[in-house]
Amino acid sequence: MFQLRCDCIYIRKYPCLHAPGGAESGKYSLYISLINLGEVLYIIEREKDLHVAQRTLAAVDQLPLQIVPVSRATVLAAAHVKARYRISCADAFAVATAQDYHCVLLAGDPEFRMVESDGLIAVEWLSRR
What we know:
- Helix content is about 45%, strand content about 20%.
- The chain has helices spanning about 35-45, 50-60, 70-85, 90-100, 115, and strands at about 5, 10, 15-20, 30-35, 65-70, 105, 120-125.
- It has a five-stranded mixed beta sheet. A two-stranded antiparallel sheet has the order 1-2.
- Helix 5 (about 115) links the parallel strand 6 (about 105) and strand 7.
- The two termini are about 15 Å apart.
């Protein structure tokens, strides 16, 4: 999960992953699945407008964030997660990507509690405002 501030827009609900290693502070590498980026953008476009979504994408492109492409293996892993848990399809991609990259999922969405408690992934819980 990440918070992105772009003209008074706060994105707090969308999965982003982190693993020790890089990013701005030099301590973490940040990843987001292309599927989850699409989720962020469609919601912003629906709630605001296309121009705001395009500005958000431009801001995301400036972040020390690696956008992870979606492979066949990731699709199959996400399908397996979705079949076993009551989570959204996009959240299943976040879980599959966290597994692929051996990352901790930053999240505020309670949908991830079951996959965490079953040991599929580790979650760092963010407060929801």
